[in-house]
Each structure stands twice: as structure tokens, then as C-alpha cells.
Amino acid sequence: MSKIVDEVVAANAAYAEGFGAKGDLAAPPARGFLILTCMDARLDPAKFAGLVEGDAHVLRNGGGRATDDAIRSMIISHKLLGTREWFIIQHTECGMQTSEGKRLAVFLEESSERAGKTNAGFQNVCVDCDATDRHAKKELAFDDLKKSVVDDVTRVRNHPLVNPEIPIYGYIYDVKTGKLIEVEEATAAGRPAA
Ligand SMILES: [Zn+2]
């Protein structure tokens, strides 16, 4: 058997050992909320948002994007399992947002020189990539990420099957500090109907 399988089985045996009263948990999340976030291994929603088993729904996909499938699960989460507040949390240095626009932000961070087209798609080809204003370019990438959170909160908010009374909050998780940073424009877009 693989080393990983052995490790997982051993870890689970230890976990089940201390399982205790968790066997009595009900399926509806006790704290009535949901988090949609990225599958990135650096993110641990239970830790960064203070969850224990039974507290909340956590949906994860590449990018923490509000795909049709994610929205379908969010609707089930509310309609059948009673969640009443939703968070959409994307993060810095996300490798999953692979549209040309996202790649562009990364390219810009490395260099202002023109990218070259190769068999593997666009690549930075400059030999002197010491960009002088990396900070400004990082900000650009951050703006792009904020827009992605705003777009996704707006998409969920406008979905015809989503209860208009559910507040949807938009955040960015900073992988360098572990902090959640609110995207105010996203939370405003996700405000519930009065
Ligand atoms: Zn990610």
C-alpha cells in the first residue's frame, strides 16, 4: 500500500479514537452558514474561520468560484439544510484562476517586457526581469482578484433561485498573513433585500 494511504488510515484511526459525541451531530450546520472557497492546500477554512465539525458548510473548487455547480450546492445548503449567511472567499496567489487576464497579471508582476508566444502558450522571455515597480504591479493583480470576488458575489446574488434575504459576504484570504480581507464592494453587492 502507498505511504500516503498508510498515513491517512493511521490518522483516521487516531481521529475516530476521540470521536466522542460527534456521532450525534445533526446534518444541518449548527451555526447556519456556508463558505465557498478555493481548494488550495494552504487554506484551512476550519482553522481560519474557527469551525468545528457540524458548524458550517464548506464548498471548495479551483479558485473558490461561483460556478453553476457551486451555486446548486449553495441553494441546497439554504433550502434543505437551513444556512442563512454565505461567504465567498478567494485568495492571493491563486493558481486556479487561469484566464488570460489572470495570467497577464502574473506576467506583469515578473516583467514589463512583451511576452512571447511559444508552443506552451504565452511566456515571459525577457532576460532582465527585475521590474522596478513590482509593488504597483502586485496591486494590479490584487485589483483583478477583488473584481473576481465582486463578480462571483454578484452572480450568486442575481441567481433567480437564491433567496434574496441571504447576505453574501466577499473576502480575500491572504496566504502570506492568514488574514481575511473584506472586499467591501462585493459585500455591498451581496447585501440582502431589505
Ligand atoms: Zn486558489
Order of helices and strands: HEHEHEHEEHEEH
The small molecules bound here are: zinc ion
Overall mean confidence score, pLDDT: 88
Give the helix tally.
6
CATH architecture of the domain at 31-96 and 143-189: 3-Layer(aba) Sandwich
Structural class: alpha/beta
Top CATH class of the domain at 31-96 and 143-189: Alpha Beta
**Physical arrangement of strands within the biggest beta sheet:** 2-1-3-6-7
CATH fold description of the domain at 31-96 and 143-189: Beta-carbonic Anhydrase, Chain A
The gyration radius over C-alpha positions equals 20 Å
> How many strands?
7
Would you mind describing this structure in some detail?
The chain is of the alpha/beta class and 194 residues long. It has a domain at 31-96 and 143-189: 3-Layer(aba) Sandwich (Beta-carbonic Anhydrase, Chain A). 37% of the residues lie in helices and 19% in strands. It is built from 6 helices and 7 strands; from the N terminus they run αβαβαβαββαββα. The strands form 2 sheets. Strands 2-1-3-6-7 form a 5-stranded mixed β-sheet. A two-stranded antiparallel sheet has the order 4-5. The longest helix is centred in the last third of the chain and has 24 residues, at 134-157. The protein is globular. The model has no long low-confidence stretch (mean pLDDT 88). The structure holds zinc ion (ZN). Residues 38, 40, 63, 91, 94, 96 line the site of zinc ion. Zinc ion (ZN) is lined by residues 38, 40, 63, 91, 94, 96.
